[in-house]
Amino acid sequence: MTANTPRPTLQSIARQLGLHVSTVSRVLNGPEGEGARAASGETGERIRRLAAELGYRPNPHATSLRTQRSNLIGVMVPRLSDVVLATIYEGIEEAAAELRLSTFVTNTWDRPETQRARTQMILDRRVDGLVFGDAHADGRLLDEVAARGTKFVLVNRRAGDYPAVTCDDYLGGRLVADHLLGLGHENVAVIAGPPYASTGLDRAAGFADRYREAGIALPAERIVPSGFDTAGGRAAAQRLLSAPARPTALFAVNDFTAIGAAGAARDHGLRMGEDIAIAGFNDIPLAAELPVPLTSVRSDMHEMGRRAARLLAGIIAGEGPVTSERLAPTLVVRSSTCRPPDSPT
Amino acid sequence: MTANTPRPTLQSIARQLGLHVSTVSRVLNGPEGEGARAASGETGERIRRLAAELGYRPNPHATSLRTQRSNLIGVMVPRLSDVVLATIYEGIEEAAAELRLSTFVTNTWDRPETQRARTQMILDRRVDGLVFGDAHADGRLLDEVAARGTKFVLVNRRAGDYPAVTCDDYLGGRLVADHLLGLGHENVAVIAGPPYASTGLDRAAGFADRYREAGIALPAERIVPSGFDTAGGRAAAQRLLSAPARPTALFAVNDFTAIGAAGAARDHGLRMGEDIAIAGFNDIPLAAELPVPLTSVRSDMHEMGRRAARLLAGIIAGEGPVTSERLAPTLVVRSSTCRPPDSPT
DNA sequence: CTGAAAGCGCTTACAG
DNA sequence: CTGAAAGCGCTTACAG
């Protein structure tokens, strides 16, 4: 295909073959049934041969205009340079491509105005559906989007009763609590992430519930909100480690927060994995590569993305009842979580 | 806008106002000049008012079909879960949105077959242009794409004479060499990345040239290829540190590779920043957060992405001569680069 | 199995 | 300043 040759169209192919455009359409892009039948005919063979020779590719804008289906989906994420979201998006994009869906992805920075503006921008592109990876617990924007009849699913974070594919964050929090309890930690704290994200909320809740079941109630000041980045983790840990009865173990609801917390611990002269235990969440690839490898909860983010794409595709296709999915996490124990310093060996 | 109301179209607006669709089109979506003139008329006011009230949004598929312009661009990256590429993409997406362009982004894993297949998939979507963030030095695929008359730019990696926005990687390599020479390192090695990426090649070349100018020629076995991830850095460093006259400093052409190298150093009982100097490239956010903060070359990846988007937009618009851009890097010195262990203080 | 027709929602050169 | 017409490239119900 050289630069000057105009792209072939159904029309141009029909003309060259002395056929009608509708015939060519049915053979090349028609539904399976018809295409298959047409396949038998010798005409079908001629059409297919010429189309292949010319490198015919249907014009998706024409198809979308005609069918009112764009085969496009939009994906909203807080920020793609966060490896957690990037990995989820990779899963979405991969599964979407398998389903012949193309994706637009955009950052919303977790800011409501940006979320609203970018959602509108994506809807203006006439996507068939949306994946929200930035849902806020209040669900206000989602309510509006749902009211318009727009199809969507949530991924990573849940909100209300909207269909969502998430990690079982509550269970993940419990797993960490189990582990720290087993090591003998009774004086612990949680760096809980921002208050609008179900991930942090559920992880913290699972952790606190498990401790409560063990007879240890975490006081409110031991569950501190934070950003999801290293700076947030550092600041939160700084506060916790300056308190009177310093905790012997920290559960950060995200690995970056945990890395920031490790920095704060260092500033306090504490060695992670020896003087203080720190656990994170997500098991990002770097967790295992740190000088003191980080104990973390592994969730299959790529698979989460794949499932979200498929769930959305099902909804778009109008398939049966929609049920949210919750992936089981596993705890990966590494050397960052030691026993309490004064514990008997 | 409720679920059951059909979306307004130019037609529906024209009908409600007793006007012709072409009039409405000119007022709502027409070129600046006409729109402005139409603005004065009282009719224009009525049209605009109703459109706003109904929440009219032009159907981009219809517009694209008619104008043969999709306002869509495609972005090819090795993998989005690499924070370097994710950050570049954020810049592309941000600038593209400002230019009213929407972007498709896809992973190609640096595999030629995938690159080819995904490029075709993106072109099938009738994008107006492409940004390649995964160019291979041989430029084979790019030659094919160029031969079709497709418009594109490269970002991060350059190839042939195709328009590209890159970091001045050669200069970056020189900066690191300057720094290590200043510290007194004469026995050094480079972990150079894969042989198909201009980034690693140029960084290694700048480094080696600067050392040569200082009278120190790096033997070939001191410039070892690697992957761009921690595993690759670890393996390469493992080899280098097992050699007879062990280098006192390592330049890894990427921060992940440097982190992997630090792991290998630890395995050899070497403390980074005390027994061995290690420098990276890109200054990813984590570099400053490591227990031993990493010396690295900073390149403004977000800005690189923004410029690539604008360069492509210029090419699509058919504006003047196209010139590649090369952003100046800066060296960020941190504690990972110490003097050679046996150097006089 | 193939053809003819209508129409998805827009833009734009041509009249008036 | 506004209208009428043509057409971008497809799909699909209706005939034959």
Describe the structure.
Chain A has 345 residues and is α/β, with parallel strands linked by helices. Chain A has three domains: 49 residues, no CATH class; 126 residues, Rossmann fold; 132 residues, Response regulator (Rossmann fold). Chain A is built from 13 helices and twelve strands. In chain A, the strands form two sheets. A six-stranded parallel sheet of chain A has the order 2-1-3-4-5-11, with helices on both faces. In chain A, helix 6 packs across helix 13. The longest helix of chain A is centred in the N-terminal third of the chain and has 16 residues. At the A-B interface, helix 5, helix 6, strand 2, helix 7 and helix 12 of A face helix 5, helix 6, strand 2, helix 7 and helix 12 of B. Chain B binds a DNA duplex (16 and 16 nucleotides) through helix 2, helix 3 and helix 5. Chains A, B: Keywords: DNA-binding, Transcription, Transcription regulation. Chains A, B: This is LacI family transcriptional regulator. Chains A, B: It comes from Nonomuraea muscovyensis.
The whole-number mean of residue pLDDT values of chain A reads 93
* CATH topology value of the largest domain in chain A: Rossmann fold
Q: What oligomerization state is this entry in?
A: homodimer
Portion in strands of chain A: 5-15%
CATH class of the largest domain in chain A: Alpha Beta
Compute the number of strand runs of chain A.
12
Q: What Rg of chain A do the Cα atoms give?
A: 26 Å
Low-pLDDT regions of chain A: none
Total helix count of chain A?
13
What's the overall geometry of chain A?
A: elongated
* Lateral strand order in the biggest sheet of chain A: 2-1-3-4-5-11
Which superfamily, in CATH terms, is the homologous superfamily of the largest domain in chain A? Response regulator
* Helix-and-strand structural type of chain A: alpha/beta
Which two chains share the most extensive interface? Answer: A-B, 51 and 51 residues
Number of domain modules of chain A: 3
Q: How many angstroms separate the termini of chain A?
A: 74 Å
Main β-sheet of chain A: number of strands, strand sense, barrel status? 6 strands, parallel
Written as H for each helix and E for each strand, in order along the chain, the element string of chain A is HHHHHEHEHEHEEHEHEHEHEEHEE
Relative helix content of chain A: 40-55%
